[in-house]
Amino acid sequence: MRVGTPVSLEALTASIREDLEGVEHEIRRMLAVEQAPVRDLMEHIGRFSGKRLRPALTLLAGRMFGELTPAHRTVGAIVEIIHMATLVHDDILDESRMRRRVETVNERVGNETAVLLGDYLFATAFKEAAALEDRFPSRYLAEVVGVVCRGEILQIHHRHDFELSEATYFRIIEDKTAALYAAALRCGAYLSGAPEEQREALARFGMKMGSAFQVVDDILDLVGDEDRVGKSLGTDLEKEKMTLPLLRLLRRLPQTGRERLRREITEGEAEHVRETLLPLLQEHGAIDSARETARELVQAAFAELTIVPDTPERTLLRQSAEYVLARDR
Amino acid sequence: MRVGTPVSLEALTASIREDLEGVEHEIRRMLAVEQAPVRDLMEHIGRFSGKRLRPALTLLAGRMFGELTPAHRTVGAIVEIIHMATLVHDDILDESRMRRRVETVNERVGNETAVLLGDYLFATAFKEAAALEDRFPSRYLAEVVGVVCRGEILQIHHRHDFELSEATYFRIIEDKTAALYAAALRCGAYLSGAPEEQREALARFGMKMGSAFQVVDDILDLVGDEDRVGKSLGTDLEKEKMTLPLLRLLRRLPQTGRERLRREITEGEAEHVRETLLPLLQEHGAIDSARETARELVQAAFAELTIVPDTPERTLLRQSAEYVLARDR
To answer: Which domain does B182 fall in, by range?
Structure first.
């Protein structure tokens, strides 16, 4: 299988539209709170309504092996709420002001409430997982949240680390981003009783697709259009997060250029850093190189699909990965 | 039963010392991480080792109805790790620098890592709860964490609210503090197969004891000795949290005095606010009044114990409540 022309997200999810609506219903049910201040915050959060990529993966993986059940929709909603919790906390860490064209929680009500709201979302997700008849999702998803946090802590630990190896970079993005993609797929397949070998192949597909997603995210943070992406950009650079394009550029610069760039990033004004960096990234092909890596990750993800049933869902999963690669928002 | 002379925490927990060591062992097991940055943070967190009041309540409630099991020790450890997670996040919200005579996580490694470490601790607690054979603790404790967060969000919502009613104040402290005491006791009794009526009586005991604990905490934040308490004090005032002594004072001041104090708290320098406030609190008996309320809460907690078995553990629970009332740290 080769990387093809990406289809729109709407076309991609048309066949599971009803079940995705079921997921929305579950999300609304889980976020319904009576108490006024939390209720208002939940309504605000609801306006972030994202691409729902992760629940779509749970549904596609599930339908590949049989009929979807209410548990699929519930787990899809739980995975999305875990994702929302990490976004609320990430926006604090990144001091982001905008998310999906809406004020972030920290911007709207301050960091303190944002910390607590993220905690509340995690607790909600765990409560719903614990209420499921099958025990696998609750046991597994709590572990995955731990992995996500470890990845983020490792990333902060390596901030300002201009010597960061690509091996560690990929470990960080697998933990902080891709693990939740893998989890969405693994849970979907598990709930449909998929054979272990195929379930694990789907999890590996998710790991690679999720890594590609993060590399594209790294690229968008540098060269994306803030209006189109709908969230604060440039925060990686401001926070001196080591993204793949930056690592590639550092490797390609001569010693003196590397030193100069390091000083510029560490000491320069944010706007000026961007102005210096963008032409350098272009000149040394660092963005193209990172994009090529994302493409390779998607190819590697495709390879994992060879052992799963040749169903319409498999095609849709392949197209989801293509969508991730091509997205500009 | 009347409030008696408090015994030391050591004397109180002597009879469950071995099981408390089992809890420590479980906590160490749960916090063991291989990956370097998280491992170092866990070691730092380990130095906070607190009073372990909540696990002691789980063990005492459990032993009141039979032999303790490994699940009691595990749940005791889970409750303590949930408590630790809330402390790590609270210290960010309060901008605290010291906790149990050790630097707070935010002071040591910054707010960002502290947010993630708190998340990691919650995830660890939920993972361990989900791994238990009995499903009650995982279902119930996730709900309790939600209640704790709601209480804290409500508290922040009512910051600077000089008109806060005492009814809302008590609702806030029940949610943010007392609910976890109630949970520690309810889980302990549940795991020993206690009859529902007695289990619920113990939960109500915990609710009242936990509320008393928070009122004493409010008082210590104003008049405690920072060296003795071992944590940053005065943060309630700096954050304009409405504590019980302050609410009592506001109620007792004439309109003009209330207005003057409100301006002072809102606009004054922290050190100066404290200097103005302390004599006012004394003069109007606001500290004594709050202390009397804590005593009444402990008396009300005792009343809940009349229907539970008259065992040595019941005496120890009573003494725990007395300890909470008398503590100066």
So the answer is: 9-326
How distant is the Cα of B284 from the closest Cα of chain A, in angstroms?
33
Cα-based distances in Å from A173 to A150, B117, B238: 11, 18, 39
Q: Is B92 on the interface with A (CB under 8 A)?
A: yes
What's the CA gap between A62 and A173, in Å, rounded? 25
Any B CB within 8 A of A70 CB: no
Is B1 part of any domain?
Answer: no
Host H or E run for residue A98 = strand A98-99
What whole-number distance in Å separates Cα of residue B245 and Cα of residue B163? 14
Q: Tell me the shortest Cα–Cα distance from A39 to chain B, in angstroms.
A: 10
Task: Give the lowest-confidence range in A301-310, B139-148, B170-179, B216-225.
Answer: B216-225
A115 closest CB neighbour out of B115, B126, B146: B115
Q: Quick check: is B91 in a domain?
A: yes
Q: Which residues of B touch A32 (CB under 8 A)?
A: none
- Burial grade of A105 (CB within 10 A; 0-12, 13-18, 19 or more): buried
| Residue A147's CATH number | 1.10.600.10
Q: Report how far apart, in Å, the C-alpha atoms of B280 and of each of B1, B13, B286, B294 are.
A: 34, 39, 8, 20
Q: What is the ipTM of this complex?
A: 0.93
Please indicate, yes or no, if residue B131 is contained in any of the structural domains. Answer: yes
Is the per-residue pLDDT at B5 higher than 80?
no
Q: Hey, which residues 103-162 in chain A have their CB within 8 Å of chain B?
A: 110-113, 115-120, 122-124, 126-127, 129-131, 135, 138-139, 142-143, 145-146, 149-150, 152-154, 156-157
CB neighbour class for B34 (10 Å; exposed up to 12, middle 13-18, buried from 19)? exposed
Residue A230 in any domain: the answer is yes
pTM for the model: 0.94
How many domains in chain B? Answer: 1
Query: d(Cα A266, Cα A248) in Å, to the nearest integer?
Result: 18
Closest listed residue to residue B224, CA positions, set B93, B52, B98, B49 = B98
Residue A97 pLDDT grade (very low, low, confident, very high; cuts 50, 70, 90)? confident
Helix (H, G, I), strand (E, B) or coil at B190: helix
